[in-house]
């Protein structure tokens, strides 16, 4: 009898104790409004290194001692950032001087709200993790739920089903869209050109020398889709490009080698292939992989496929092995992530899965 009473009392006590499990992290904006001394879990994008009360380095990093986090991976305003002090145990993995490729990554930080450089901050950090499920830019268990656990053809089909139903825009409207998707983060009046990397006025567009036009990364002739809404106007594979350089690229496949292009010094080309500058090789690979998944031949659309060869007639683009190498050599960066967000939020309502989940490339090909 005593044992039974003791068991009942124990159960009542257990039920009276609240169970804490898996609380989601605060946004940067929410964490900034928490009072000093509060234990917080904050998730945000790494956008720079705070080095003084007035300076956040967003390139050419000189310190591993702290990070600036923001809710927007392309944020440049210090007022929208929270500073995270990195103790010695976190610097080698998360410090931007040692790991500049971490810029733009989404992390979740546990620590205490306390000002750093007289600015809203987090100190006494107890853990830092890269939590994709928390990342608002990587829908994870929501947007990609139907792809979880799949590989090969099954994964490719699942991703196609996820991204194929989206808003389509006209080719004429693509001009204005590209002014937003490819805006220079350091000059809001300009766009960045894909192959040359030059920053020029958003409104210097057209067909004249030194203007920019709309480059189909997957050439229109590789499937004969022209500028039809959808395949020919998909913003995930349209980029601003110097008119002359675009003309030289024509419908060449992607591969290494060739002679240097006179107007794009880090670009090489020959009779059957095009090698862009190193800084955008991964961007191009992920755009090609997107097109091969989005356009599978259903609903009357052309079936685009990536081949491990070049100069093949039909809706085919290569070279698969080279594109996979480029994908690894040039990881996803903040510009790509922001571009993906703008297309998703403002125009098409779909995403490039290979920006959100780079591991999908190897899982399919």
Automatic annotation (TrEMBL):
Transmembrane segments: none annotated. InterPro entries: Endonuclease-I, His-Me_finger_sf, YhcR_N. Keywords: Endonuclease, Hydrolase, Nuclease, Signal. The keyword Signal applies. It comes from the Bacteria. Residues 1-22 form the signal peptide. GO terms for molecular function: endonuclease activity. Residues 26-129 form the Endonuclease YhcR N-terminal domain. The keyword Endoplasmic reticulum does not apply. PANTHER family: ENDONUCLEASE-1. This is Endonuclease. It comes from Jeotgalibacillus haloalkalitolerans. The lineage of its organism: Bacteria, Bacillati, Bacillota, Bacilli, Bacillales.
């Amino acid at each position: 009898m005593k044992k039974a009473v003791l068991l009942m009392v124990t159960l009542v006590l257990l039920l009276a104790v609240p169970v804490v499990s898996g609380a989601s992290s605060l946004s940067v904006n929410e964490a900034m409004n928490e009072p000093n001394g509060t234990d917080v879990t904050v998730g945000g994008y790494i956008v720079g290194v705070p080095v003084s009360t007035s300076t956040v380095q967003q390139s050419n990093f000189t310190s591993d001692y702290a990070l600036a986090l923001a809710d927007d991976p392309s944020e440049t305003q210090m007022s929208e950032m929270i500073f995270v002090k990195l103790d010695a145990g976190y610097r080698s993995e998360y410090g931007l001087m040692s790991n500049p490729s971490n810029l733009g990554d989404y992390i979740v930080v546990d620590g205490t709200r306390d000002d750093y450089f007289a600015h809203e901050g987090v100190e006494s950090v107890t853990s830092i993790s890269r939590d994709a499920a928390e990342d608002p830019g990587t829908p994870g268990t929501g947007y990609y739920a139907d792809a979880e656990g799949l590989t090969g053809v099954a994964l490719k089909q699942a991703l196609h089903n996820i991204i194929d139903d989206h808003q389509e825009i006209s080719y004429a409207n693509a001009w204005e869209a590209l002014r937003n998707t490819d805006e220079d983060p350091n000059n809001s009046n300009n766009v960045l050109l894909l192959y040359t990397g030059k920053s020029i006025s958003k409104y210097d567009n057209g067909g004249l020398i030194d203007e920019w036009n709309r480059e189909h990364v997957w050439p229109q002739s590789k499937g004969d889709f022209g500028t039809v809404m959808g395949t020919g106007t998909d913003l995930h594979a349209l980029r601003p490009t110097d008119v002359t350089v675009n003309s030289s690229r024509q419908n060449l496949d992607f591969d290494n080698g060739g002679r240097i292009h006179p107007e794009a010094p880090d670009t090489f080309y020959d009779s059957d292939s095009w090698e862009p500058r190193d800084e955008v090789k991964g961007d191009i690979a992920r755009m090609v992989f997107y097109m091969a998944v989005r356009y599978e031949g259903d609903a009357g659309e052309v079936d685009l496929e990536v081949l491990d060869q070049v100069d093949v007639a039909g809706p085919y683009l290569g070279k698969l092995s080279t594109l996979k190498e480029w994908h690894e050599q040039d990881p996803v960066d903040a510009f790509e992530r922001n571009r993906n967000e703008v297309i998703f939020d403002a125009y098409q309502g779909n995403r490039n899965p290979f920006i959100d989940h780079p591991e999908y490339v190897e899982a399919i090909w």
